[in-house]
């Protein structure tokens, strides 16, 4: 029998797993069934679920949830990369965060994940020259999640922000793929200049809690920044820096610090 006229069902293991977890959660905790249905089970794709969740979180008297839902749906429909990045962020959070036991959790509960997805929509609006809407998303994300990412900043895929309180990322900052950072991280400028003034974070980088990276400097791939450090100079790949101001104190310890989440300096 020919199969060429039969539709092929897309395979989406992340979304399928989230739906299955939502069904299990509904059975285990019926009092929360309304949330699981409205946020997950009512939707036919991760993109639709994320659009609904972001709209509910970011709605205000100035911008009702329905209007925000239309904007998020438009963003996901017109830029499929947003959905791809969200799936990579979910996988990263599930693999790296020891308190994440289900892929359902980031979508429903983790403000770091939600803030990154809100930024991705804001950045899409920014690139579409819809600056006021992009700024609105930035403002509401800062108010709701305690995460302030300028819509002009560029973020790669597989981003995990743990706890995510008091994150600040400036307009001309870039963050590579598979980066992990903890709370109170700043990727900031060093003055009031109006040009390229923020850090360029490579892929596979781990940034510890409270670290400040200032200026248009490069942080090399697969490096580590210790908690509380103030980084003012370029960081080579595969190195660990610590201190105020930060200095190289050793090797990174592995090929991808962001995945291992090891923040200790091991003596050799």
TrEMBL record:
GO terms for molecular function: serine O-acetyltransferase activity. Gene3D superfamilies: Hexapeptide repeat proteins, serine acetyltransferase, domain 1. Keywords: Acyltransferase, Amino-acid biosynthesis, Repeat, Transferase. It comes from the Bacteria. GO terms for biological process: cysteine biosynthetic process from serine. The keyword Transferase applies. InterPro entries: Hexapep, Hexapep_transf_CS, LbH_SAT, Ser_AcTrfase_N, Ser_AcTrfase_N_sf, Ser_O-AcTrfase, Serine_acetyltransferase, Trimer_LpxA-like_sf. It catalyses: L-serine + acetyl-CoA = O-acetyl-L-serine + CoA. Residues 14-118 form the Serine acetyltransferase N-terminal domain. It is an enzyme of class 2 (transferase). Its EC number is 2.3.1.30. Pfam families: Hexapep (PF00132), SATase_N (PF06426). GO terms for cellular component: cytoplasm. Pathway: Amino-acid biosynthesis; L-cysteine biosynthesis; L-cysteine from L-serine: step 1/2. SMART domains: SATase_N (SM00971). The keyword Amino-acid biosynthesis applies. Belongs to the transferase hexapeptide repeat family. This is Serine acetyltransferase. It comes from Palleronia caenipelagi.
């Amino acid at each position: 029998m020919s199969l060429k006229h039969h539709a092929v069902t897309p395979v989406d293991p992340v979304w399928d797993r989230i739906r299955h977890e939502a069904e299990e959660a509904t059975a285990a905790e019926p009092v929360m069934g309304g949330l699981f249905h409205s946020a997950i089970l009512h939707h036919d794709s991760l993109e639709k679920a994320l659009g609904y969740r972001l709209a509910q979180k970011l709605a205000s008297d100035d911008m009702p949830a329905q209007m925000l839902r239309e904007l998020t749906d438009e963003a996901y429909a017109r830029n499929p990369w947003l959905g791809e990045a969200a799936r990579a962020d979910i996988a990263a959070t599930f693999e790296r965060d020891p308190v994440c036991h289900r892929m359902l959790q980031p979508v429903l509960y983790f403000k770091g994940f939600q803030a990154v997805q809100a930024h991705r929509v804001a950045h899409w609006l920014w690139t579409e020259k819809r600056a006021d809407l992009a700024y609105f998303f930035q403002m509401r994300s800062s108010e709701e999640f305690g995460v302030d990412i300028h819509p002009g900043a560029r973020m790669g895929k597989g981003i995990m922000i743990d706890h995510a309180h008091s994150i600040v990322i400036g307009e001309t900052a870039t963050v590579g793929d598979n980066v992990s950072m903890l709370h109170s991280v700043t990727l900031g400028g060093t003055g009031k200049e109006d040009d390229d003034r923020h850090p360029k974070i490579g892929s596979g980088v781990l940034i510890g809690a409270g670290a400040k990276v200032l200026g248009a400097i490069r942080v090399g791939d697969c490096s580590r920044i210790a908690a509380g450090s103030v980084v003012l100079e370029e960081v080579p790949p595969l190195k660990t820096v610590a201190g105020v101001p930060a200095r190289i104190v050793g090797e990174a310890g592995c090929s991808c610090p962001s995945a291992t989440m090891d923040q200790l300096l091991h003596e050799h």
